[in-house]
């Protein structure tokens, strides 16, 4: 008699050419990830060869009940670490039946920016640092924290090891390996300053692919926490008080910044970002004012400043970049719940296309 786990882990290639494609999209809140699966006749590696699909947008807060159909356009394919074999995860964006992007489709506008010849020529690289918090399911309190109470003060938890300092490492490592299997360019993980909080990094990735990869990594992480019976939070300040918030620091460089003399290009780009500080802050995630207080390794939300190796700045430049006269910089303002399509394309638009 087969066990449920035996059936879940069946290798379809033993008996059929057919595969399962999990179509993934972003729901009405801008942070709720939705997905559903369909059978395809055989393996597919090019998203352009995948069929479009549809769903009930009235059930995701994206369409009225009397005209509820929303169309899914496949945009990126990753290997499926849950079903494995030739099965795939498909990152999609969302359109009306007439082919108009719906308001919550932020990928379409980003793709237009990244396809601009001036942006293409600069080959923008991104490294996205995604912080998140693991919560106990029934009480929505951080993993490893005593119920109704608090752990010892911050200090021993950042990159810490041990049963009293690292909570949820099995989830973190499972996610790391699953992303590598999927073909996501995940570059590392670490425990964060607040206990129960972790970070993974995606990149360097070029242009629109950075957003596709981060959304795929978020999807995989939430699927793993579902299996583990743990709640995943991207709240930028999950616990009030003397505890670090959660951000999505965005590392960025262009071809000109990576070449000789790039440090001057970096400084000009930072100057532009300062001139559009309010516009960027408005687009960098909900609830970010609770995190950007000027404490806990942040700059105040109303202040723009940059510095070398300064983790209390809006923009941090690394010592290596200063020394070598070229490289990249880190925008420390985005919140953990930011939309990577918005943030990455906005940085490119401001630093490459925008004329003050």
Give a short synopsis of this structure.
Residues 106-356 form the GS catalytic domain. This protein is α+β, with helices and mostly antiparallel strands. It contains ten helices and 13 strands.
List the SSEs and their pairings.
Layout: H1 4-8, E1 19-26, E2 33-40, E3 53-56, E4 69-79, E5 88-95, H2 107-114, H3 117-122, E6 125-136, H4 169-182, E7 186-191, E8 197-206, H5 208-228, E9 230-233, E10 250-253, H6 255-258, H7 262-275, H8 277-283, E11 306-308, E12 315-317, H9 319-324, E13 329-331, H10 340-353
Parallel strand pairs: 1-5, 11-12
Antiparallel strand pairs: 1-2, 3-4, 4-5, 6-8, 6-9, 6-10, 7-8, 10-13, 12-13
Helix pairs in contact: 2-10, 4-5, 5-10, 7-10
Question: What this model shows, in words?
Answer:
The chain has 356 residues and is of the alpha+beta class. It is built from ten helices and 13 strands. It has helices at residues 4-8, 107-114, 117-122, 169-182, 208-228, 255-258, 262-275, 277-283, 319-324, 340-353, and strands at 19-26, 33-40, 53-56, 69-79, 88-95, 125-136, 186-191, 197-206, 230-233, 250-253, 306-308, 315-317, 329-331. The model has no long low-confidence stretch (mean pLDDT 96).
Q: What descriptors fit this protein?
A:
356 residues, alpha+beta, Ubiquitin-like (UB roll), Creatine Kinase, Chain A, domain 2, 2 domains, eight-stranded mixed sheet, five-stranded mixed sheet, 10 helices
Specify the CATH class of the largest domain.
Alpha Beta
Helix percentage range: 25-40%
**How much β-strand is present in the residues?**
15-25%
CATH architectural category of the largest domain: 2-Layer Sandwich
Reported for the largest beta sheet, the result is: 8 strands, mixed
Give the overall average pLDDT. 96
- Roughly how many Å is the radius of gyration? 21 Å
Number of domains: 2
């Amino acid at each position: 008699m087969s066990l449920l786990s035996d059936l879940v882990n069946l290798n379809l290639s033993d008996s059929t050419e057919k595969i399962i494609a999990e179509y993934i999209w972003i729901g009405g809140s801008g942070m709720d990830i939705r997905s559903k699966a369909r059978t395809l006749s055989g393996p597919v590696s090019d998203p352009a060869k995948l069929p479009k699909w549809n769903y009930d947008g009235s059930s995701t807060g994206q369409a009225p009940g009397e005209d509820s159909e929303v169309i899914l356009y496949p945009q990126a394919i990753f290997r499926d670490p849950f079903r494995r074999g030739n099965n795939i995860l498909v990152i999609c964006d969302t359109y009306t039946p007439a082919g108009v992007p719906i308001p919550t489709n932020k990928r379409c506008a980003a793709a237009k920016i990244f396809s601009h010849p001036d942006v293409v020529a600069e080959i923008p690289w991104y490294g996205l640092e995604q912080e998140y918090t693991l919560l106990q399911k029934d009480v929505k309190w951080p993993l490893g924290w005593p119920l109704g109470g608090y752990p010892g003060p911050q200090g021993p938890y950042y990159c810490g090891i041990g049963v009293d300092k690292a909570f949820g490492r099995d989830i973190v490592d499972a996610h790391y390996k699953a992303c590598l299997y999927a073909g996501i360019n995940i570059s590392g993980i670490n425990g964060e300053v607040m206990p129960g909080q972790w970070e993974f990094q995606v990149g360097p990735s070029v242009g629109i692919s950075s957003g596709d990869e981060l959304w795929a990594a978020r999807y995989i992480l939430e699927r793993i926490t579902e299996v583990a019976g743990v709640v995943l939070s991207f709240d930028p300040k999950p616990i009030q008080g003397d505890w670090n918030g959660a951000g999505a620091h965005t590392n960025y460089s262009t071809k000109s910044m990576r070449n000789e003399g790039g440090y001057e290009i970096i400084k000009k780009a930072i100057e532009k970002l300062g001139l559009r500080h309010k516009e960027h802050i408005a687009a960098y995630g909900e609830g970010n004012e609770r995190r950007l207080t000027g404490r806990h390794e942040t700059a105040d939300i109303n202040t723009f400043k940059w510095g070398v190796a300064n983790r209390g700045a809006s923009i941090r430049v690394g010592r290596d970049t200063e020394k070598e006269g070229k490289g990249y910089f880190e925008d420390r303002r985005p919140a953990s719940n930011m939309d990577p399509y918005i943030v990455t394309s906005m940085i490119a638009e401001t630093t490459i296309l925008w004329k003050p």
